Amino acid sequence: MGPLLWFLAAALLALLELTVGELTLLMLGAGALTTALVALGGVPMWAEVAVFAVSSALFWFFLRPPLRRRMEKPLVLDDSPRALVGSTAEVVEDIVGGEGQVRFDGSLWSARGLDPAETIPAGSRVTVYDIDGPVAVVWKEP
Which helix (H) or strand (E) holds 3? Predict the structure, then answer.
């Protein structure tokens, strides 16, 4: 009966963690789950309580800090022009002799073709190969 109670306690603590979000109850739930696994071996109740206390403390001190750092680390959003490489653009002005204009990311950009000998007509879809200062280097997919 002991292992079942520890499994239920682990599940309840994990569910309660969803409302709190501080990883405290989750560490206690991990301790309860560890204790449930140990209790399957038929250890006495005092040993189960000791395993719960020790394992919960270990989870709290060694697992919780790296998890908190990972959760609190801000997501990095690349808003530099280099992030536009690989996106699709629409040719607004014919790209002839390596000069023209494309529209992508909601704005107009000067553009040049990857192959300077190729003419890309207006209305074509191109892929941004590189950003060279204020100029998008594009190529037309076959």
Answer: helix 2-20
Q: Which residues contact 38 (CB under 8 A, 6 or more apart)?
A: 47, 48, 51
Closest CA to 105 of 123, 124, 128, 121: 128
Could you say which DSSP state residue 22 is in? S
Strand, coil or helix: what is 29? helix
| pLDDT tens for each residue of 12-38 | 999 999 999 889 999 999 999 999 999
pLDDT tens string 73-113: 877 776 677 778 888 999 999 998 778 999 987 889 999 98
Strands 125-132 and 88-96, by their bridges, are antiparallel
Q: Residue 22 class from Cβ within 10 Å (0-12 exposed, 13-18 middle, 19+ buried)?
A: exposed
Q: Is 74 exposed, middle or buried (0-12, 13-18, 19+ CB in 10 A)?
A: exposed
Quote the tokens at residue 109: 């950009």
> Residue holding tokens 């994990």?
14
Q: What is the DSSP letter of 140?
A: E
Distance CA 33, CA 51 (A): 10
